[in-house]
Write a structure and sequence with these properties.
The protein has 465 residues and is of the alpha+beta class. The chain folds into two domains: 140 residues, no CATH class; 294 residues, no CATH class. Helices cover 61% and strands 7% of the residues. It contains 16 helices and seven strands. α8 packs across α10 and α11 runs antiparallel to α15. It starts with a helix and ends in a 9-residue tail after the last strand.
Length: 465
């Protein structure tokens, strides 16, 4: 199994030419549309038609196996076939016709070429691989894989389409997200509820929540992470004492938790710089990787500042000197990169200076931003403590206080669960996008949109229902 099969990269794309006798062009297009594996090159105006749903939103575009009579389709109310024919005609206009031969060009996954070639050979048509045009990146299609990968891929695609030459950070992004969520939502009891809820979604229950099936890996992963941090914090529906404190009680040692949050952020940022460096190298070679603020230059600045901080906290003068040297090297490489991008000259120098200053400031602010992992973890623990203290005080009063304590415990935990789960989910997403993805991605790719319309196999004259 190769690296591509593991999922480190988007699927490999192939530029292809679709060739057919002019008389068989429609047959070729029907076969290609039915296969749904080719993105046909059309003009910008034409692309608005290809793949667009029918005007009648209740009708799914379909194609007739043989050339239909459009007037008959209109009389029969076959909006589905009319929509399909409209798209087919748009693709037909994009064909290059030279006498008895017609052809189209497009993109498809390299692994799908043999299958399409076999299908087209049956009707006397063919598909031939072409060399990719210089300066034109292929569209991106991420690997599907397991349900976990598919769920986490939404986290990436919502931010941007992964450029074709970049690594696919789906699994790393998903892992980072659940860790950050768990640190802010650290409670073993409430985390267990999330796990149960995620498993119910996976089982399709309740039925009215079936549309949320795809997010079950997020829910289960976040719940497991919350359980882990809950055990470390000694939190089980608050500081109830049901589980021991394996590391620290957040409210007792807030500074330690704050340092841990920044430390987790430093590890995640370091990982983002590694992925960003690889992506810059794949996009533009070593020169871009060395001089990019999201590549080696930025990583050197980040590492140098980290060494300086370590030297200051340990009174190691040599460590401070090394850190300053490394950080200055990063600044110099970043300045060269910004200057080259600006085109040189006086204006370019000014722009490069401003961008270097911004890059330096961003390193510090982005790292400090991870302190919110501790801040919201403390908030969660504080709310749990308030509910638990109130529960104990009412319970000790006896009588009706016991009933009030029970209501307070369940209602208080329900409110805390709903509020903190939402806050932690949003804040983890914010850190993922602004602090991490801003280093992983320098530009955006183009999603692979294969043309797919099924063929209507019903007898001629049948009316859609």
């Amino acid at each position: 199994m190769g690296w591509r099969d593991i999922g480190g990269e988007p699927r490999r794309m192939q530029r292809v030419a679709l060739v057919a006798p002019t008389a068989s062009l429609r047959e070729l297009l029907v076969c290609v549309a039915n296969a749904g594996t080719v993105e046909i090159d059309v003009t910008a105006d034409q692309s608005e038609t290809v793949g667009r749903p029918a005007a009648d939103t209740s009708a799914t575009p379909m194609l007739a196996a043989v050339d239909p009579d459009l007037d008959s389709l209109q009389r029969d109310g076959r909006a589905d076939l009319l929509a399909g024919e409209s798209q087919l005609q748009t693709c037909r206009k994009a064909a290059i016709i030279r006498g008895e031969v017609a052809g189209l060009v497009g993109w498809m996954c390299a692994a799908d070429v043999p299958s399409l070639r076999e299908r087209l050979s049956v009707i006397g048509c063919g598909v031939a691989p072409l060399r990719s045009p210089r300066g034109l990146d292929p569209p991106t299609m991420l690997r599907s894989g397991s349900a976990v990968r598919q769920s986490f891929s939404t986290l990436v695609t919502t931010y941007a389409t992964v450029p074709y030459r970049d690594l696919d950070p789906t699994l790393l992004a998903g892992f980072a997200y659940v860790v950050m969520f768990g640190m802010m939502f650290g409670d073993a009891g409430q985390g267990a509820l999330l796990v149960v809820g995620g498993l119910l979604l996976r089982a399709g229950k309740p039925a009215r929540a079936s549309s949320l099936y795809s997010v079950w890996p997020f829910v289960v992963g976040g719940g497991l992470a919350a359980m882990l941090f809950g055990l470390l914090y000694g939190e089980f529906f608050g500081p109830t004492g049901v589980v021991p404190v394996l590391w620290i009680a957040p409210l007792d040692e807030p500074l330690t938790l704050l340092g841990a949050g920044v430390g987790v952020g430093a590890i995640l940022l370091a990982g983002a710089y590694v992925v960003g460096t690889v992506n810059r190298w794949r996009e533009g070679g070593w020169l871009l990787a060395l001089s990019s603020a999201s590549g080696i230059a930025g990583a050197a600045l980040f590492a140098g500042l980290g060494l300086v901080v370590a030297g200051l906290t340990t009174d190691a003068a040599w460590l401070i000197a090394v850190g300053i040297t490394v950080a200055c090297s990063g600044v110099a490489m970043a300045f060269i990169g910004f200057l080259a991008a600006a085109g040189g000259g006086g204006a370019g120098v000014t722009q490069a200076v401003v961008e270097v200053f911004d890059a330096v400031v961003r390193v510090g602010t982005n790292l400090v931003s991870f302190a919110r992992l501790a801040a919201f973890g403390l908030t969660h623990a504080a709310l749990g403590a308030v509910v638990w203290d109130g529960t104990r005080n009412l319970w000790s009063a006896g009588g009706i206080g016991i009933a009030a304590a029970t209501v307070l415990f369940f209602v208080g935990n329900a409110v805390t669960f709903a509020l903190e789960a939402l806050v932690a989910a949003v804040q983890a997403l914010r850190l993922e996008y602004y602090e991490l993805f801003s280093r992983v991605f320098a530009n955006e790719g183009r999603p692979f949109r294969p043309w797919h319309i099924p063929v209507d196999t019903r007898p001629s004259g049948a009316t859609a229902t």
